[in-house]
Specification:
Order of helices and strands: EEEHHE
Number of domains: 1
Strand content: 5-15%
Oligomer: single chain
Number of helices: 2
Shape: elongated
Radius of gyration: 15 Å
Structural class: alpha+beta
Strand order of the largest sheet: 1-3
Length: about 80
Amino acid sequence: MSTQGKLWFRRKLFGWGWTPVSVEGWLSLGVYLLVVLGFHAVRNASPILSFLGIAVATGGLVALCLFKGEPPTWQWGRRKP
């Protein structure tokens, strides 16, 4: 996990996960959504292929969040100092 340079994602305030905080973060989330919608829109593709494509895209987004974001942790409200 590397948070060198500007963060693209910050931890969510409640729960586990990230939220985009930079232009790059929002663009990567938009590209992810376009990829998922693209796999959904292709009706003649096999369901297994669509599932695998979405799974790979989701894994890539999680890896990007781990690399360019804060380390994930369960959080319930105010950030720890």
